[in-house]
Design goal:
The structure is a single chain. The protein is of the alpha+beta class. Strand 6 and strand 7 form a beta hairpin. Helix 5 packs antiparallel against helix 10 and helix 20 crosses helix 21. 48% of the residues are buried.
Length: 589
């Protein structure tokens, strides 16, 4: 790959454009398998510099604390509990501003590279309340001045708290600096809760399932370290549990082939069954996937129940290497600072305070309640994925999350550009501006290839055929729901809950599409106890017109360019009758 220029596939554009969508995805998928997206080295360096700036910011904020001195004297203060507290709040602020997950070109955000704060301080943008019919004062989908003020208050309250000093000596934690005062912590949690009820996107963007739960632990006084340890354990083990599926090896093969560290093409090919004809995950991908899941499941238990010594050292080393492997791969969605934070948590909680365990808890009831709540959300998220986002469900990079594909006519794209209060333009327009009109199709189809390399992509592109009005596919531009969501609400991180029927309705109220102008495929994640994934087909103007399910077993046997997954239609409102167990027409064989 070049330093400044992307390494894109070389195809005969005239012949390539004559193919079907599947035929056009094939060379893109093969290119992805041995090159990845072809990101310029300069972009990877951009993200490395961003990580370094994140670290520098945390460093300087910690040094502003009374009793913590010495820029290079890290060994004297790195294990102070207040240092961990400030890093948690600093990272929450970093994320909710929009500088963390979902930032920049590797999340298809070119101009500007972020949304978040640019949207959430601006009245008139779309907000998505989680329970508008149940929680008072949350109805509506338009951001008000009050919403903008609440968001600004969260930023200010968090920033001010970062520069507070500790409360004084806490002998139980062996600190003379102390902990953060409780009152500002309560204010931050209250503001985030109110904002989350008004707009779930802000809560998810703040990575509330990680940083908010740890901030709750700050309220437990001397039990803060052990409570935070339990939160970490739930994150690791919850994520590992969600990877006990057939999807995860596809994530590993796709991520490793895109890694800037794994540069040798023959090695990249080893992650596939038989490059270039069979791009299902190969043995190496399965070994890495299952080995990583074992580390994520077992090492946290060792850290929690060992009190130091070589068991702690080995488990901590394995988890640090685990997060470094993800970090250096610079995965799509770029959760880079989150992985840096998790490494810091391993060291500051489990190594520096290895002697503090469950037996040292002084107030067990609140700690137990926090553990049961977050563990219960993980369990419910895996069993009922349509109800709970993959973030609080902790199904991180498991290859199993809600996804959507939007089929948009050019006339509808023009209405979106005119009707939405947004900062960024439509994804296709961003690509055209960055790559040029003649070359724009290549990165667009590379995006299709990325989606198709994951199991759900096979089902999405199959269902796209069924979604388009009258089957006239040339009338539509296929847009990944994540990209459109970033344009409409300012942030996305692979979560279909932010571009489901709620967003469709919000955009329809602003753009007034005609029937057939926008058709959306919504594919739910796989419940952990079932072998199928539910889908819905929705016309933005007229509503749902079909729902059914696809089998995971059918998806994992197909190639990225094959869009003939069998479909079981469960309901066809357009026909006025239920059609149970009707199988979709399979290939000619």
């Amino acid at each position: 790959m070049g330093f400044l220029q992307p390494e894109l596939p070389v195809v005969d554009m005239v012949e390539w454009r004559k193919g079907t969508r599947g035929e056009r995805i094939r060379p893109m998928a093969r290119h992805w398998a041995e090159v990845g997206f072809g990101t310029p080295v300069a972009l990877h360096m951009f993200y490395v510099i961003k990580i370094l700036l994140y670290l520098l910011g945390a460093w300087l904020i910690v040094l502003s604390t009374k009793g913590i001195d010495g820029f290079t004297a890290v060994g004297d203060w790195w294990s102070e509990p207040i240092v961990f507290q400030k890093v948690v709040l600093y990272t929450l602020l970093f994320e909710v501003i929009g500088l963390g997950c979902g930032f920049g070109p590797l999340n298809n955000r070119f101009f500007p590279p972020m949304g978040s704060i640019l949207y959430w301080l601006r009245p008139g943008t779309i907000r998505l309340p989680p329970w508008p019919g149940r929680v008072p004062l949350t109805k509506g989908d338009s951001r008000t001045v009050l919403d903008a003020v609440l968001y600004a208050a969260l930023l200010v309250a968090t920033a001010v708290t970062l520069f507070l000093d500790g409360t004084g000596a806490v002998p139980e934690l062996d600190t003379t600096v102390g902990l953060l005062p409780v009152a500002p912590v309560v204010l931050i949690l209250a503001l985030l809760a109110v904002l989350g009820l008004r707009d779930k996107v802000i809560f998810l963007a703040a990575r509330g399932e990680v940083y908010a739960t740890m901030t709750v632990a700050f309220l437990f006084g001397v039990d803060v370290i052990v409570a935070a340890k339990l939160v970490f354990v739930v994150i690791w083990m919850g994520a590992a549990t969600s990877k006990l599926n057939k999807h995860f090896p596809f994530v590993v093969s796709t991520m490793m082939s895109n890694s800037p560290v794994v540069r040798w093409k023959p090695l990249k090919r080893k992650f596939f069954e038989n490059f270039p004809d069979d791009l299902r995950p190969g043995r190496w991908a399965r070994v890495v996937a299952h080995g990583g899941t074992a580390v994520e499941m077992l090492a946290p238990l060792v850290l929690l129940f060992s009190a130091g010594g070589w068991p702690t050292a080995i488990a901590a080393t394995m988890l640090v290497l685990f997060h470094l492997a993800i970090l250096t791969a610079i995965p799509m969605g770029v959760p880079l600072e989150w992985n840096v934070f998790m490494i810091f948590g391993v060291l500051s909680l489990f190594v520096a305070h290895a002697d503090l365990g469950l037996g040292d808890i002084q107030h067990p009831l609140p700690v137990a309640l926090l553990f049961l709540v977050i563990a219960g959300i993980v369990l419910a998220g895996n069993m009922f994925p349509r109800k709970i986002s993959f973030l609080p469900g902790m199904r991180y990079y498991a290859g199993n999350w809600d996804t959507t594909m939007w089929c948009v006519k050019p006339s509808a794209s023009a209405k979106i550009e005119q009707g939405l209060v947004a900062i960024a333009s439509m994804p296709q327009a961003q690509l055209e501006r960055f790559y040029g009109k003649d070359r724009m199709e290549i990165p667009m189809f590379m995006g299709y290839a990325f989606r198709a390399m994951n199991t759900h992509g096979r089902a999405l592109f199959t269902l796209v055929h069924r979604a388009m009005a009258d089957g006239r596919e040339t009338d539509y531009v296929i847009t990944d729901g994540e990209r459109l969501c970033s344009t409409a609400v300012g942030w996305n991180f692979g979560d279909g809950h932010m571009h489901n029927e709620q967003l469709i309705a919000a955009i329809q109220r602003r753009c007034h599409f005609e029937p057939g102008e926008v058709r959306v495929v919504l594919l739910d994640a796989q419940p952990i106890h079932r072998g199928t994934q539910q889908y819905r087909l929705v016309d933005a103007a007229t509503g749902e017109f079909e729902r059914g399910e696809v089998r995971v077993a059918d998806m994992v046997t197909r190639q990225p360019w094959e869009d003939d997954v069998p479909v079981r239609v469960l309901s066809d409102p357009g026909s006025g009758r239920e059609e149970h167990a009707r199988e979709y027409e399979q290939d000619a064989q």
